[in-house]
Give the backbone structure.
Amino acid sequence: MTKTLTIIGGGLAGSEAAWQAANAGAKVKLYEMRSPQNLTKAHKTDHLAELVCSNSFRNDDITSAIGLLHQEMRKCNSLIMQMADKHKVPAGSALAVDREAFSLDIQANLNNHPNITIIREEINTLPAEGLTIVASGPLTSDSLTQEIIQVTGKEQLAFFDAIAPIIYKDSIDFNICWMQSRYNKSGPGGSGEDYINCPMTKEQYYNFVEELIKGEKTKFKEWEKDTPYFNGCLPIEVMAERGKDTLRFGPMKPVGLDNPHSSDKAYAVVQLRQDNKLGTLYNMVGFQTKLKYGDQKRIFQTIPGLEGAEFARLGGLHRNTFIQSPKLLDEELRLKNRPNIRFAGQITGVEGYVESAAIGLLAGLFAAAELNNQTLELPPAVTALGSLLRHLTANANPDTFQPMNINFGLFVPLEEKCKKHDKPMLLSNRAMVALENWLRK
């Protein structure tokens, strides 16, 4: 190859993208704005692939969705996973790393690669020509953020990102809950039974509101404090604090709903909306929250019908920068209106270190194939890599799109029936067989 790939951002996604593309023969220019004199408010060093928060890559067991993603990336010669394994520290079933040794070793590997040039310089504009991967992360500079807004037209980038919990449908009790849209109205592609409804009595409702107000909340980091809430996405507990009846006249209003299990009118109703095309995941409508995880589980499992709820993702609140990927990106992570530009990492709307690196891995492979005038077949839909990619580019609801960790709810369901405890292993076995076949092509 004689053409050069430009990568903006030297975090986990950018580092992995550079590694994959360079190993495929591409010449890579990797731009990182951080230097000893120019750090972000969150970073402590100028090292590539610095871990800003936890040092954990979470569960490494292949029967978990994140553990499966670990293994798939290892099979794809991931630099991030090589260095995580090399610098791991004791953490039970989780994969945790010595964060400084991890990032320094990644930086050394990229520095020593003959096809990679690392440039310590801030990029403020998106190149009009030449293949580019934007992997600038959730703390993208203000100037580049404005450029992205201009190109995408989606001004959703500079406020607290309040995320609602997502629940596995098969953990909801339909002896209590029922499917119905308000007044049986159906939207595009709907049936009039588009929501799962959880009824509350008056006593249950006021107890619930009291617990929301008393629940322990996460605290903002110093550099986050001046970022305003997005008014269309207020945390549920903030709404509760504005008045004990606010929620039942807001997201928990019971109007237009008839409980087939009871003749008593519900005093309030919690609604869940389908979150993926497979219909395996449902998000809690209006339940974005900054409650701590323990209190989220405790309080939300008091909702009738959700006593045994299993969460694919808990709610959260943090300053974030991400694009509306399902509307903006094609199946190879290219910007539809500027196909020379790909996006990778957290800015695409994935949560987590490994998920960010995984999207970097795919973006690097796609870009290298394009530079070589080849077409890389998409990873199989039944794999963790394929499931995550399709969530970003096809399967998520664009209008309710929020950052997401890998979870089995994103996977194509098994064709055969099985016992619940056997499901993770069957999904993982299916994925690894499909990945091996894909890698052999």
About this structure: The chain has a mean pLDDT of 88. Residues 119 and 362 are 22 Å apart (CA to CA).
